[in-house]
Amino acid sequence: MISQEIRSDETDAVDYVLFEVGDMKCGMDIVDVQEIKKLSNITAVHHAPDYVRGVVNMRGQIVTLVDMQQRFGMGESESKKSYLTIIIHSKNELVGIIVKNVEDIVRTPKTSIDALPATMHGMLRHCMRGIFKSGESLVAIVNKDSLISAMAADKNEAAR
User: Fold this and answer.
1) Which of 88, 81, 160 is nearest to 127 (CA)?
2) Is residue 97 within 8 Å of residue 52, measured between CB atoms?
3) Structure confidence by residue, pLDDT tens digits, 101-126
4) Which end of the chain has the smaller Cβ count within 10 Å, N or C?
5) Within a 13 Å sphere around the CA of 20, how many CA atoms are in the beta-carbon half?
6) Interatomic CA distance for residues 23 and 124, integer angstroms
7) DSSP annotation string for the chain
């Protein structure tokens, strides 16, 4: 019987998909990512928050597209015919987060994740769970659950 020795630094590490939102490098736990696609044929959603670009039909499922740059208060993303989108699954719906580009997947030990700097405020702070160094860059970790709950709160506020 062959036994495999598992190093503790490997079991205490997380794989992150690295992407850019505006000029900020972000990461999301790969477990939260369903797929990465270039999406087009976007249908506008009237009376939706400004950061919702619209919806698309992806293999029979409706996906809400969120402009992450606008969501984080960094201005609207450049308008295009198609968008690079990270598809995430939340409860009973799919959400596509529009990003500038997807760079890599990196494995990071949990011990190398630091708290967010005090200079991060508002939606950025609410939707992030930490920061780590990757090469010469700092990567802000997007918290999928906080992002989705903020969208739900916006939806409830709009309904009032």
Assistant:
1) 88
2) no
3) 999 999 999 999 999 888 887 777 88
4) N
5) 7
6) 13
7) -------HHHHTEEEEEEEEETTEEEEEEGGGEEEEEEE--PBP-TT--TTEEEEEEETTEEEEEEEHHHHTTS-PPPP-SSEEEEEEEETTEEEEEE-SEEEEEEEEEGGG-BPPPTT--HHHHHHEEEEEEETTEEEEEE-HHHHHHHHHHHHHHHH-
Split at pLDDT 50, 70, 90, the class of 10 is: low
The structural domains of the chain, ordered by start, are 13-155 (2.40.50.180)
CA distances from 21 to 27, 36, 102, 141, 155 (A): 10, 15, 10, 12, 23
Q: Say which residue the tokens 């369903």 belong to.
A: 34
Q: How far apart are CA 72 and CA 52, in angstroms?
A: 12
Token pair listed for 122:
């508002």
Percent of the chain with pLDDT over 70: 86
The residue type of 145 is: D
- Token pair, residue 51, equals 């950061």
Q: What pLDDT, in 10s, does the model give residues 36-68?
A: 999 888 899 988 888 899 999 999 999 999 998
